[in-house]
UniProtKB/TrEMBL annotation:
It is a multi-pass membrane protein. The keyword Hydrolase does not apply. PANTHER family: ABC-TYPE MACROLIDE FAMILY EXPORT SYSTEM PERMEASE COMPONENT 2, MEMBRANE COMPONENT OF TRANSPORTER-RELATED. It is found in: Cell membrane. Residues 292-406, 668-778 form the ABC3 transporter permease C-terminal domain. Keywords: Cell membrane, Membrane, Transmembrane, Transmembrane helix. Its main location: membrane. The chain crosses the membrane at residues 21-41, 289-308, 333-360, 380-406, 427-446, 666-690, 718-737, 752-779. GO terms for cellular component: plasma membrane. Residues 20-248 form the MacB-like periplasmic core domain. This is FtsX-like permease family protein.
Length: 789
């Protein structure tokens, strides 16, 4: 029986090549795109969940300040881990991870390789037992036999040692400090929030405390929030109780700290990829939006199939009637039509697999990920099975029920209940285009926000400025600067400890005249030379800048937000203290954006330093290659053992919005695909309509109807459905995208014309799709049409 079902289904597929092709193409694209999006969603949701203890591991965050100045940091002081283990019940294990910036290059024999910024870290020994990162070589219980031991990843070992056994080999950091490889770690998974290439023992970091500074040791340093601390806790213990206990310990061990500073919170390890330390979205919103988009595209593809199948039911009514008259049961007919759907779906599924394999490299490039579509991967099958079941159920049951329900006598007389009622199909067409219009509106708003980000006045000029670490050049900065400025290709040279694009942390270690005892001011400190403000064209609201004289070391410049939040009136000449240095405010600069536009402008303070570790060079677009070459000359002179490296601030700025760029590109593609699949279905329905109205069209033409009249007749109903879809989709899409924009402190306005453009575009595309078939039908010879009828 099954063989007969299959054979009949295949014949029907072959006999209706045009409609079968439309169905298969629509389903193939819908399935492929739906699965690609769900693979992306699954990848995002899988971050850090591969650890067997993920449910009991938490990251400690710190809340600083109150009210508008309140911030939640992902870093906490070094002693938190040690005290958690000693004094907090329920804490099983503690691990600190501190990024190391001590070395930029490592040498093995004659091979000198540069390590990427932030790819080396100090870790506690428990790092290898708390997490499931696999140590391929080395001792998990004693990964660092001594402080000169390092653990490197498998790919790092390959880069330095090729096929040699790396254990016992020596890597020399910055040509001065030798480290012996004591372990090889499997590369960190792409879906891990923790990564890196080289791991040092935390003891190395501890030894950097000399005992002569304000903070005597790492386990006493409660003032610096620089460690990423993870705690493994017992499942029966309240995480809030642990956090409160840690806060109490902090207050007890750092006399003078305000009760609102250094309040600890625990964040589940599985949440740190998608949520910021303060609980706001760091990506979960995009995951939700993409999940909805995947479902919508699959639904659009299913609606196509349902619409075409039910629309053509009239043409199959006689077949069903004859089958029933000769004894076919309704269940058998139902099964027959289910098999037809399954066959069509199976072909589409195979083609979708091939399509996914073909586009996966491009998809990875667009999404900025390294995902794999492996049919032997259980996770991939979770996505496939979920997609198949949902799509198959949605696209098969209703058409099968409808087709198998015809009453033979009525069907042979052409009286078919249900098939003639096109209301259901109209509802589906409206849904289909509502989804598409919604995606188009979403795409337009995302693109507008990105344009806004790139067009907003940041308050400084970053054009054609590149930066580089100076290293040994710092000792000769003034001479190098004078020499560089003598060349016309160099428009400006300055130095600072951080880029103007993004600040380097914050501190609450501030004081000023009139400061209330319960007020905290978190402020971002910038160290710079006298030319920094001028080169970046920061504007003064009051006062003046640094002049390079010795007394500038006791001068401060604040931004407008700092003055406002501190409540300092007439700030010029007033006292201000940063850390241990009392100084005088000599200037106030207008606010500028030194963080992502998702954040409001925060307080900033400028301190004078004759030279810092980083140099900024301004050139022009045309002279940039020559300027880079000029700086390279001094780099080679003073930093011969280090590779020359520089980066443009424009690139760093764009990097901050890389995620939004990927999202925008993906949205563009998804919206295009959604509208294409929708039009595919509309094209099929228009063809079918023209086919069943061929006699009416012939008569109308004989009676004098023009091509325009025929086209209008065939298009009008469909366009009304598209207009209805626009009316339904517009407010929903506006609401959803407005919610998405709320993540940005500075956002583009949603104008009405965006919705008009989206709606107009949908109407034009739909009309073009329908009119192609309508005009073709209108141009047909009426004599032939009437004769054939």
């Amino acid at each position: 029986m099954f063989k007969n079902y299959l054979k009949t289904a295949w014949r029907n597929l072959i006999n209706t090549k045009f409609y079968s092709a439309l169905n298969i193409v629509g389903l193939t694209i819908g399935l492929a795109v739906g699965m690609l999006i769900l693979i992306w969603v699954q990848d995002e949701l899988s971050y850090d969940r591969f650890h067997s203890k993920v449910e009991s591991i938490y990251k400690v965050n710190a809340s600083i300040g109150t009210g508008a100045s309140k911030q939640v940091w992902g870093g906490v002081p070094g002693p938190v881990a040690a005290f958690a283990l000693k004094e907090v019940p329920g804490v099983v294990s503690a691990v600190r991870v501190v990024t190391s910036y001590d070395y930029s290059v490592f040498r093995y024999k004659d091979k000198l390789l540069k390590e990427d910024f932030g790819k080396a870290s100090y870790v506690d020994d428990a790092f290898f037992t708390m997490f499931d990162f696999k140590l391929l070589k080395g001792n998990v219980e004693a990964p660092f036999p001594n402080d000169q031991s390092i653990v490197i990843t498998e790919s790092t070992a390959k880069r330095y040692f090729g096929n040699e056994d790396p254990i016992g080999k020596i890597l020399t950091g910055d040509s001065k400090d030798p480290y012996t490889v004591s372990g090889v770690l499997a590369d960190f998974p792409a879906n891990s929030s923790i990564g890196g290439d080289i791991l040092f023992s935390m003891n190395v970091k501890k030894k950097q405390y000399t005992g002569k500074d304000f903070w005597k040791s790492m386990d006493q340093d409660w003032g610096n929030y620089y460690t990423t601390t993870f705690l493994q806790v017992r499942p029966d213990v309240s995480t809030k109780a642990i956090a409160d206990k840690l806060t109490d310990i902090h207050m007890k061990n750092q006399p003078g700290i305000k009760p609102t500073d250094g309040v600890f919170q625990l964040q589940a390890l599985k949440d740190i990829h998608l949520y910021n330390p303060d609980g706001t979205s760091a990506g979960i919103q995009i995951v939700k939006i993409f999940s909805i988009v995947a479902v919508l595209i699959l639904l659009i593809a299913c609606i196509n199939y349902i619409n075409l199948s039910t629309a053509r039911s009239m043409l199959r009514s006689k077949e069903v009637s004859v089958r029933k008259i000769i004894g076919a049961e309704r269940s058998q007919l139902f099964m027959q039509f289910i098999i037809e759907t399954v066959l069509c779906f199976s072909i589409a599924l195979v083609l979708a697999f091939l399509l996914i394999y073909a586009v996966m490299p491009v998809y990875n490039s667009i999404s900025g990920k390294q995902m794999h579509f492996d049919l032997f991967n259980a996770n991939v099958w979770q996505v496939i099975v979920l997609t198949i079941i949902a799509t198959l159920v949605a696209s098969s049951i209703y058409p099968a029920l409808l087709l198998s329900s015809f009453k033979p006598i009525n069907a042979l007389k052409g009286k078919i209940a249900g098939a003639g009622n096109a209301t259901f199909r109209k509802v589906l067409v409206v849904c289909q285009f509502a989804f598409s219009v919604g995606l188009i509106i979403g795409t337009l708003i995302i693109n507008k926000q990105l344009q806004y980000i790139h067009s907003i006045q940041l308050g400084y000029d970053k054009e054609h400025v590149f930066s580089l670490p100076m290293r040994a050049m710092q000792d000769h900065y003034e001479a190098i600067k004078a020499e560089l400025l003598s060349h016309t290709e160099i428009k400006g040279v300055s130095t600072g400890n951080t880029s103007v694009i993004i600040g380097n942390g914050s501190t609450s270690d501030t004081d000023w005249d009139g400061k209330a005892s319960d007020v905290s001011l978190l402020i971002s400190p910038f160290d710079m030379d006298k030319d920094f403000i001028g080169m970046f064209k920061l504007k003064f609201a009051a006062g003046t800048g640094f002049t390079g004289v010795k007394s500038d070391s006791a001068h401060y410049i604040l931004n407008e937000t700092a003055v406002k939040l501190a409540g300092i009136k007439d700030p010029i000449g007033k006292r201000f203290k940063l850390h241990n240095v009392d100084g005088t405010i000599i200037g106030v600069v207008k606010d500028f954006h030194f963080a992502s536009l998702k954040q409001t402008i925060e307080p900033a303070i400028f301190s004078y330093r004759p030279s810092s570790w980083q140099m900024f060079v301004k050139t022009t677009g045309k002279d940039a290659p020559a300027a880079i070459k000029l700086v390279e000359k001094y780099w080679k002179q003073y930093n011969a053992n280090f590779p020359y490296e520089y980066s443009f601030l424009d690139d760093a700025y764009n990097e901050m919005y890389k995620s939004e760029q990927h999202t925008s590109t993906l949205f563009n593609i998804f919206a295009g695909i959604a509208i294409f699949i929708s039009c595919l279905g509309l094209f099929g329905l228009a063809t079918y309509t023209a086919q069943i109205k061929v006699k009416e069209i012939g008569i109308r033409k004989v009676l004098g109807a023009s091509v325009g009249d025929i086209t209008t007749m065939l298009s009008r109903d469909f366009l009304l459905l598209v207009l209805l879809a626009i009316v339904i989709a517009s407010p929903i899409a506006w609401y959803a995208m407005n919610k998405w924009l709320m993540d940005y402190a500075y956002r583009a306005e949603i104008h009405w014309w965006l919705i008009a453009v989206a709606g107009g575009g949908a109407v034009i595309i739909a009309f073009a799709t329908i009119s192609f078939q309508a005009v073709r039908a209108a141009l047909a010879n009426p004599v032939k049409s009437l004769r054939s009828e």
